[in-house]
Amino acid sequence: MKNAGSIARIRLLRTPAVWLVAGLVVAGVVAGARPLSNAPEPVAAGPSLAAAATAWIDSLAAPQVAKARRPFADPQRTDWHFVPKFDRKGLPLRDMTPAQQDLARGLLRTALSEAGSTKTQIIMQLEEILRLREGKRAKNVRDPERYFFTVFGDPSGREPWGLSVEGHHLSFNFTIRDGHLVDSTPQFLGASPATVKTDLPGLPAAGTRVLRDEEALAFDLVQALDEQQRKQAVITAEPAAEIRAAGAPQPPGEPPVGIRHADLRPEQRAVLRRIVEVYCGTMVAEVAAERLRLIDEAAGGWDAVMFAWSGATKPGLGHAYRVEGPTFSIEFCNVQPDADGNPANHIHCVWRDRTGDFDLPAR
Predict the structure, then answer these.
(1) Among candidate residues 348, 346, 345, the one with its CA nearest the CA of residue 316
(2) CA distance 293 to 22
């Protein structure tokens, strides 16, 4: 296999140093996240995001701007998905100069925590592993530079505007009103392989688990449940093939199911809260704090948060879980094999706003 020549095309040397990780193993995630659409206290990330978006747009040539800019009311603002696609809205990294790429990545880093930026870069690099392992099956859609940036509206003014950054296994969506970041969902991250099995030069090393905490903490919790608690928490013996409402403009509307935070022991509650903090920790700190504040202040507070499990309770077989409360919905599944056929080695996970994604009213 001609790995060296193939891998050279990634152009990793153009990537800002903050996006590269020694060893490429993500450890614990510190809290850092976003506000919801009806939050009374705005998040301060809006002005920095607007400045970064304006700088990136100003660097583009006219044909690039035609792809990168759309009206705020464009229906494609709420058209999101994480599957590999030949056609997407926006301007891909591959069609930018190195300087423009730096500005685009800087724009996304403005909205993400350091942990979120690290995960994002590794997920992009996993595309090259997929390309090499799939060969002809890759069909030219596996590419660490096929990640598309779109600005909806005018970030330099006071009117509402939005940002989408999306590609295979990534979808970030932000809404800014009156200069304030008011929504940051859907927030989707995926990983295939979930655990890297093979060392390839210049790529995430064998053993890398970019979404380790999202999976391992949930296993810790379900395995800590006693028999009676499991009867409440385990909702199906077999996991669904995919997360619910994938690509839909709004999250599922049915009530949360499973075991309530109130019915967990103190040490189990701590693990459940840690799961929530890991998902929040993808975003900047003030956004994470706002998400957690809204959980505290919702009806029932943390006691209204529920944990539901489906499938195997040990790694290597299909499994899925949900963590949901009045203001948010987390959903995770690992049911698909990776490109080499290793079972349950392909993660999809999402944080959604039960009060309404994209700063829109809930259904």
Answers:
(1) 345
(2) 33
